[in-house]
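request received
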Amino acid sequence: MKTIEIYCSFVKMLYFCRIYILTKPVMNTTPKPIIAVHGGAGTISRESMTPEKEVKYKSALREAVLKGSQILEKGGSAIEAVEAAVIVLEDCPLFNAGKGSVFTNKGTHEMDAAIMCGKTLEAGAVACVEGVKNPIRLAKLVMKKSGHVFLCGPDAVKFARLYELPIMPPDYFFDQFRYEQWMEAKKTNQATLDHSAEDEEGIILKDKKFGTVGAVALDAEGNLAAATSTGGLTNKKFGRIGDSPIIGAGTYANNASCAVSCTGYGEFFIRAVVAHDIACLMEYAGMSLKEAASKVVLDKLVKMNASGGVIAVDKYGNVDLCFNSEGMYRAYKRVGEKEFVAIYRD
Amino acid sequence: MKTIEIYCSFVKMLYFCRIYILTKPVMNTTPKPIIAVHGGAGTISRESMTPEKEVKYKSALREAVLKGSQILEKGGSAIEAVEAAVIVLEDCPLFNAGKGSVFTNKGTHEMDAAIMCGKTLEAGAVACVEGVKNPIRLAKLVMKKSGHVFLCGPDAVKFARLYELPIMPPDYFFDQFRYEQWMEAKKTNQATLDHSAEDEEGIILKDKKFGTVGAVALDAEGNLAAATSTGGLTNKKFGRIGDSPIIGAGTYANNASCAVSCTGYGEFFIRAVVAHDIACLMEYAGMSLKEAASKVVLDKLVKMNASGGVIAVDKYGNVDLCFNSEGMYRAYKRVGEKEFVAIYRD
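response:
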């Protein structure tokens, strides 16, 4: 009888242990800080790329994630990291943002940018700003100092001057290649995406490369942030604004779900509220980051015939670089691990 | 035995009938077309309102829903109905949109507007446009003719001229009351919301009335649409853009969920992606229109200390006019029924 009692107690103990194991919260070790960047998506074919150009692109993407990663490693915030990474890409003439911005129909460079903090949901954005060396810095300034979220046009540049942000003369933004792109676009009176690829059926878009840069990050404190910057469409007119500076469309961060930066056919990304949709699919439909990004980019956007991609991170340190185009300039780096850099699908 | 067999057959029949009743789709009779409008929300107290003013406001709101409702009654589309209703409010000097737009810091009138079709997810928006008599018409033109979604500034006005939309001289927008509001705001160098009420703690916002107009509708074909138009903040500067023209924030329509037009403290409405959030709570979290609107306006926005409201309709013809402020100028009319018009909470 004694043996049976001991046996029963043992079984009970096992049973309760099982309940404990099944019900105790999963002990998440704090995920390592991570940063991801993109430099645009679209028809990026190996044929149109020389080995030298490929090295240059990859080196710039690497530099951007390393810059952001160094900040995260020292305990810096996700906001600081995404801003710094985007500045690297804005200062590089290869990408259509900041220095490398394309020409508008008037021969100017009108840039858009946005930044968002996932912890506070604070956000800052600018559209159609000329001469500002780093539009992402202006977007952050709007977030921190203006009491507003979204400023545009020459009056937004006045705000930049008020805080002594560097304003550059037009020749800083001059690039022979971009100029030729513009001349080409003017011939057909079309607004075109970044540089040339094959023809497109659309009325507006002659080619299929989406020039934008962006970054998303998770910091050591578990906070998320997103930032996006662009020169928009070559030969654009009428003060066109794309998805990049639209909170919810091209840029969104929320600690409850994820941080997202988009690159693609902006008009469709606005209509599909892409970045916020990914966040909502996670928060309300219980999808993982990968499932949510795939649902939007590989299903919804494809059905709309909208080309492009997103980079996204969540609070667990998951990262997803998802695109429905041929390629996307992209990279990510987890603190303490080697960076990943890629251009093509494979 | 025979009796038992008959009895069994009868029971079986009853059982299958039950299955049929439980599984057959709910036969929705097509919901009646409906339109709702708002003319802004905020601290609207009975004390500050004369009976004459109240009659004028209510009469304008009534005129707007009747105009939209007449279109819906004749089988017109939700897009046509919301555009027509918003034009009525833009042409009325009582509301801060179109003719009644407030003064910017420069003494100009810079208007924002957006429109969206729930069937196609097509959208059009404009920001910081001066002189355009009906910014909502320009937003619709952007949607239909520009190949873009969002245009801003003087270049967007060029697009309006190209299609010969009426452009008015500055005195068309002059209003003594608005002018005095502006003079008052200039004294303190503050950007303020619509006209005066009690003081506010915020740095930027002196008073608490949010001047915006908007409309949402469901048409006979079951399609939804939303439209919003505003003059923004009195004494605003730096090219500030609020939530009204941001697809997903101040304006959103999707036949899969609902159509929403917002009015409130724009910066918070952008950060909370209000209109799209309501749609996602319905589509992904299975909430009803009322639950979703309440969750966002009465819970999330209240926690952000963001005042304002929304009008929303869904594909079943449900309507919700939800606000966390003291009042909201609002009305709705279901085709064939009497209109509802209200200002205060009770």
